[in-house]
Amino acid sequence: MKNSLPKKWVQNLKILDMAFQPILNIHTGKIFAVEALLRNYKEVGFDSIFDLFDEVYKDGLLYSFDLKLRKKALKKYMKIDGYEEIKLFYNLDNRLLEMPNFQEGNTSKILEQFKINKNNICFEISERHEISTSSDIQSLLTHYKKENFCIAIDDFGVGYSGYKLLYETTPNVIKIDRFFLNGVQKDIKKKLMIRNITHLAMQLGIRVIAEGVETKEELFTCRDIGCHFIQGYLIQIPTLNTKEIKKEYEHIAQILKSEKRATNQDCNIEQYLDKRAPLSIDTDMNAVVEFFQKNPDILTIPIVNSINEPIGILQEHKIKEYIYSPYGRSLMSNNNVKKSKLKHIIEPCGVTEINCNMSTIIELFSNNAESIGIILTSNSKYYGFLSARAIITIMNEQNLIYAREQNPLTKLPGNAMIEKYLSEVSSNNAFYILCYFDLDNFKAFNDVYGFRNGDRAIQLFADILKKNLPSQFFKAHIGGDDFFVAIECKEENQQKYIDKIYKVVKKFSDDARELYSKEDKERGYIVSNDRDGNKKEFNLLSTSASILVVRSITKKRNIETLNQIFSFQKKVAKQENNHISISCMI
Question: Count of domains in the chain?
Fold first, then answer.
């Protein structure tokens, strides 16, 4: 096949250069890959990369030009220290298949020439721009997947195909577009959409890159949602100097270490993890059958590629179905088939890092009724398998812990959960409304009407919180007659949620009257001893609410500061006519 280029494009190739931008493990700050980005296009007379490729396409040279560009990118990629352990993401033009000289196998030949592992290459295809009727992004994805290359969809969520591509092609990686990441920590809608995209992808065994991360708040949010990797200016701008690509980015590692939060270690996940060695995708089918025969207790085994990246799971019953089918027997007996036979019967499986939040694992498992487990990785390499039985055991144990932390009377979370919530508030820059409730004149009521009726009053207030505050609110019982609620929201919605807190205050004052005798209700007060033992008139039950607004720009939001503000503010609330005080941290 001839792939020669006219002199004009040969000269342009000499001027064009490749910059690399790192893609990191979102939990460790260690490098996973680099993306090759074309540079110097203006020096050859084009305003944009798209204009350059449009010109090559019009000249009918797109495939020939791209093959030369791949070689250029690979040669420079090999100058990166430790490139053998780093993936290269290379962008493909959607119109390649239209070229008359397009041919299978050329990329594999180039990789063999450079002695580069095929699993080190990931072809990235954008769905941002509408595809012409003759160009078919799905065909391009299918072609390279058939050739056993890693494939990624760039700009996911803002293109024309979206979930259809996930269904029909199932790429190895998706990159969530910067649009969804910009200010995600303050935007509930964006956060929900990224969570849904990420968790669906994970259930299909697809790994997720948060692309265009520029702040540590975006980093924390994407990590807690479950994204596997990050890319963006927070890490490093694209660089032409390969010596600037590092194995680990210390400033990212420090950012990750600076935030204290709960991880899997809370439940000692290691004791539940099956660390049995996985099978390679290239394992001979007869060896696979023999493996299950020798290990009758094993019903599921993870499958990895040549660089120990998980690509799915194999269930024992699939082997039986395969070897007893005419198609399977034909494939097994055909030794001329060089490509993996195992890939026909492996199934997708959720994949996440060993040190991700345990709630992510549980949510990932719970959202898929057919899930038989989750594959865990360490720095993107296979680490172990967490079976469905193990996850259910962990869930049961966590439920017991949660039950122990619940207040036995109100069934609301207690102080441990409140401290955990406040820790999250103090560790990011989201917008929050926090509120401390204290029942007024409760001791007097409890003394006159007895502790059983005191419990009724506390239960009444807890029920009002549950019924009148939306599910997005965190609702907790500090103890006795003290309660705490909080919500993360958009700044423009704050008044809506503050109004709901006002309604809780009024609702309790109205409903609590029914706990009194007819005489006390008519009189409007009861007589009881104060803390010094003196007779005193006490108004009927009400509640004081100390509302604290924590803005996105608030920097000093540590737990100690929050508690100090509440300690002072709740005294102010009791002096207000409406029993409400509100302040805002700046």
Answer: 3
